[in-house]
Amino acid sequence: MRTWEENVRKVIPYTPGDQPNRPKMIKLNTNENPYPPAPGVERALKEFRTDCLRLYPDPKASVLAEALSERYGVDQEQIFVGVGSDDVLALAFMTFFNSKKPILFPDITYSFYPVWAEEFRIPYEPQALDDDFRIIKEDYYRENGGVIFPNPNAPTSLAMGISDVEDIIRHNQDVVVIVDEAYVDFGAESALGLLERYDNLLIVQTFSKSRSMAGMRIGFAIGSPLLIRYLNDVKYSFNSYTMSHLALRLGTEAVKDEVYFQETVSKVIRTRENAKKRLSELGFCLLDSRTNFLFVTHPEYEAAKLYEALKAEDIYVRYFDVPKISQYLRITVGTDEQMEALYAFLERYEALQRKEKQVWTV
Ligand code: PMP
Known about the structure:
Layout: E1 26-27, H1 39-47, H2 62-72, E2 79-82, H3 84-96, E3 103-106, H4 112-119, E4 124-127, E5 146-150, H5 162-170, E6 177-180, E7 201-206, E8 219-222, H6 225-236, H7 245-256, H8 258-281, E9 285-286, E10 293-297, H9 303-312, E11 315-316, E12 318-319, E13 328-332, H10 336-361
Helix pairs in contact: 1-7, 2-7, 3-6
Bound molecules: 4'-deoxy-4'-aminopyridoxal-5'-phosphate.
4'-deoxy-4'-aminopyridoxal-5'-phosphate binds at residues 84-86, 110, 150, 154, 180, 182, 206, 208, 214, 219.
């Protein structure tokens, strides 16, 4: 090792899902929305004048914060906007998790949490889920340096009831509690209603899933004005101009079209509910997803093998080679057509497996 390398901040990075670019692929691996953004987004893009690009964007992201404050019925000073919720979450870790006591989050959850904790030297203690992959709220009723969990959780897809979410917050009023609501629009109850009772609650959401804008990179947090002020102080000591003119313009259009938003979310939910039925018929066991993805296992298939077989067909899903979930696949809900292609392949796969088994037993 060179001498200067001793001083390098060494991290084990987060591994994002593949972003292959194959013409006929069916991409069900990174929980993107299969439908385009609201029509107003495309219109705004066509009308976008590049002249403004000479100038720095508004560091306060005011137009977008204003649109969000109207949509969610909170004051503008309760909103923080960032480059995807990853940016918002990373800044929130840096800002609020600054204790010597460990922060708590589930052991099976968004795998970026331990990465940020390591990077920012935050002690952490993952809390095991129960045998049904549910968060055990009582495990969070003890001294800690902060709490974070997604609701619904990922990759399990399961949502916690709002009274259980409140129980966790109520037991943790001396630390900041972050509820990561990346998937909340697909069928869980948001913790927004709890904001007036808890000034230590930070809710983080994203445009990447329900608003079909993963490629634009927009996320936001809603919390008490005091929490948001602290978050802004850290942002302004790091990078003031995070949101580009274009992201602000297009993001604002997306928030304004509530009808399109509701329609798109309903379509995804309908396809997901149908997928639960179809995949069960194909012998899969699946958790009761409240997200835009399904977390599935099959008693007779090796998940890693099925993952490879799907990939060979240009159907991409997500496989996590980690303890407790190595027999599971995470499948994003696509269009009905994409899902039909998935079921058709799974039927062929079933027949193939049966044949293979016969060969072995003969
Ligand atoms: N939280 C959870 C639970 C997620 O699954 C994701 C998506 N990978 C994110 C946050 C981050 O999403 P984005 O940065 O696209 O907003």
